[in-house]
UniProtKB/TrEMBL annotation:
InterPro entries: PPIase_PpiC
Pfam family, any one: Rotamase_2
Species this chain originates from: Colwellia psychrerythraea
UniProt protein name: PpiC-type peptidyl-prolyl cis-trans isomerase
Recorded GO MF terms: peptidyl-prolyl cis-trans isomerase activity
Positions of the PpiC domain: 113-246
Claim: Isomerase is one of the keywords in the record: yes
Keyword terms of this UniProt record: Isomerase
């Protein structure tokens, strides 16, 4: 059954059925240009929308008004089409595009990936499913706007640190070498999210790649540049499929929606002569 649900032919049939339902529900399959009709399905939809908004069923008079307003909308729309008012209307064109794309993407929701597909997707995107990383580090901040050559200042400061005994690598000794800011000298076992929130994602990404227990210079943050020594890094392991199954499935479905939409437009472009001038 799962294999059947993945067949391209089924995807085409589902899309065709969805489009048929959409036109039947929204346009009620008008028999000709002079006939405006409303189906029982549309009336049910109008009642449901009223109940969802008002938290009660519509009265007979209210339902009659809903139907009448819908018919007004339809005859006005039909007259607008006849008068050519829709031609070149970007708002209406965008709305129709959104509706069509929704139908195409929604058809993918019926797919059910098996474990092999999910495992393959997880393997292809391992960084999206790692456990959260935690870091311990010390840092010294430098404001580039206060230094004509901040790189030279960083190099000089690093040389001063190296000349010190490791027992002297304390906030009291090293903080005076840097510029003042509200940041702490030492951070212990803080999460990636914490670092990204306080220093910026670029700084957090640097901690993921830094070598351990060595001072690294010109690490950028949202404030400026830093000298950083990473002392501990934990977590970051790729989680098993059992732990992240729902997330992987949702991401897999999202990718299938994008692929289906791309294929849909590829087919549409093949049906029309596209001229760019």
């Amino acid at each position: 059954m799962k294999t059947f649900l993945k067949e391209p032919l089924l995807h085409f049939l589902l899309l065709g059925a969805a489009l048929f339902y959409f036109y039947a529900l929204v346009n009620d399959n008008q028999a000709n240009d002079n006939e405006i009709s409303i189906s029982a399905a549309k009336i049910v939809q109008l009642k449901y929308s009223f109940e969802k908004t008002r938290q009660r069923q519509p009265s007979e008079e209210e339902l009659a008004a809903l139907v009448n307003n819908y018919l007004k909308e339809q005859v006005a729309y039909q007259k607008g089409v006849e008068m050519g008012l829709l031609a070149g209307d970007g708002i209406i064109q965008k709305r129709i595009q959104q509706k069509v794309e929704f139908i195409v993407e929604d058809s993918v929701s019926r797919l059910e990936p098996d474990d092999a597909e999910l495992s393959g997707f997880l393997k292809a995107h391992p960084d999206d499913y790692r456990s959260e990383q935690f870091f311990s580090f010390v840092q010294l901040y430098f404001d580039p706007s206060k230094h004509r050559n901040v790189t030279a200042v960083l190099t000089k400061t690093l040389a001063q640190i190296t000349a010190l005994d490791e027992t002297e690598h304390t906030a009291v000794k090293l903080m005076p070498l840097s510029d003042n800011i509200f940041l702490d000298y030492q951070y212990t076992d803080v999460s990636y999210a914490f670092v990204a929130r306080y220093f910026g994602s670029k700084f957090a990404d640097s901690l993921v790649k830094l070598s351990m227990n060595t001072w690294q210079q010109k690490i950028q943050s949202g404030y400026g540049v830093h000298l950083v020594q990473l002392t501990q890094r934990t977590g970051g392991e790729i989680q098993s499929l059992d732990k992240v199954r729902e997330q992987v499935k949702q991401d897999w479905l999202n990718e299938q929606r994008k692929l289906s939409l791309a294929k849909f437009y590829q087919q549409l472009f093949a049906e029309y002569n596209i001229n760019v001038s």
